[in-house]
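Translate sequence into structure tokens.
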Amino acid sequence: MIIIKKISWEEILPIWQTKLWPKSVRQSPIEPNSAMCFFKQWQTNDDGVRELNEYYDLENMKFTPTFWGCFDGDKLIGVNSGHMCINKEYRSRGLWVDPEYRGVLLGTKLLMKTISQGYHEGAVLCWSYPRLESWHTYQKAGFQQKGHNFWCEWEESETGTNSKCALVFDENIKIDSVYPSASQK
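Result follows.
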């Protein structure tokens, strides 16, 4: 029987290091949390021009992450994690399913556990940065690249072609009021 349950950092790390982000793919250190933020931030460059740039905030590292494992008996066959970020964003990261078990919605179920945890913790949205190859799994879980005052595009990163995406929990929330930097020019 396949079950999904909470696991520890010590259980998920070897999967991330060997299966998801081996050193041949990812050079940066693997941490339990990520400093990356969902929305970009307006910054003024050296020429005085304002532009949107990726935004990282070390405050994100202070939140307690939740790790999920999918098991077939005692065999760990899938993982994902999530943690709150500043501005009540909930980050989903580190989704991996054993190739022998793909195609039966285990990735979507792991994402749904993470989404539920974010909702339970009071987030306004759940976001992620999936690879292009996994995008269909995120779509099945309800993530979008565009909508509700955000627009995300595919880009090359150290782990491949990725794009930010989000699932907004309450479409009545005015993102501009929660994230004033998302709309300021």
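Note: DSSP finds four helices and twelve strands in the chain.
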